[in-house]
């Protein structure tokens, strides 16, 4: 589970961007921390980079494929 120390630097959001599940190898439109919705594994990714492939980590048989979900959006200055 992602951790932080200084909560004043994070803001809770109800944006729909946090609801989408992405398949391995798809482009990350939003930079930040992504979590596998199936097993909880987490990664950090830069804007526009490709989410890790199916062989990034292994699921127990029967769990299904990796599905990446945005957990923390890294907000860059314009
Ligand atoms: Zn997983």
Helix content: under 10%
- SS-derived structural category: mainly beta
Name the shape in a single word. Answer: globular
The biggest beta sheet reads: 4 strands, antiparallel
What features would you highlight for this structure?
single chain, 78 residues, mainly beta, four-stranded antiparallel beta sheet, 22% strand, binds zinc ion
Write the layout of secondary structure elements.
Elements: E1 21-22, E2 32-36, E3 42-45, E4 68-73
Antiparallel strand pairs: 1-4, 2-3, 2-4
The protein binds zinc ion.
Describe the protein in words:
- By secondary structure, the protein is mainly beta.
- It has one domain.
- It has strands at residues 21-22, 32-36, 42-45, 68-73.
- The protein has a 4-stranded antiparallel sheet with strand order 1-4-2-3, with no helix packed on it.
- The chain starts with 20 loop residues before the first strand and ends in a 5-residue tail after the last strand.
- Zinc ion binds next to loops.
In short:
With 78 residues, the protein is mostly beta strands. It is 0% helix and 22% strand.
């Amino acid at each position: 589970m992602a951790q932080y120390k200084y909560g004043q630097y994070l803001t809770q959001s109800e944006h729909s961007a946090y609801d989408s599940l992405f398949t391995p190898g798809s482009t990350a439109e939003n930079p930040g921390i992504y979590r596998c919705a199936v097993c909880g594994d987490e990664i950090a990714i830069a804007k526009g980079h490709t989410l890790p492939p199916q062989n990034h980590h292994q699921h127990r048989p029967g769990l299904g494929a990796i599905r990446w979900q945005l957990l923390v959006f890294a907000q860059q200055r314009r």
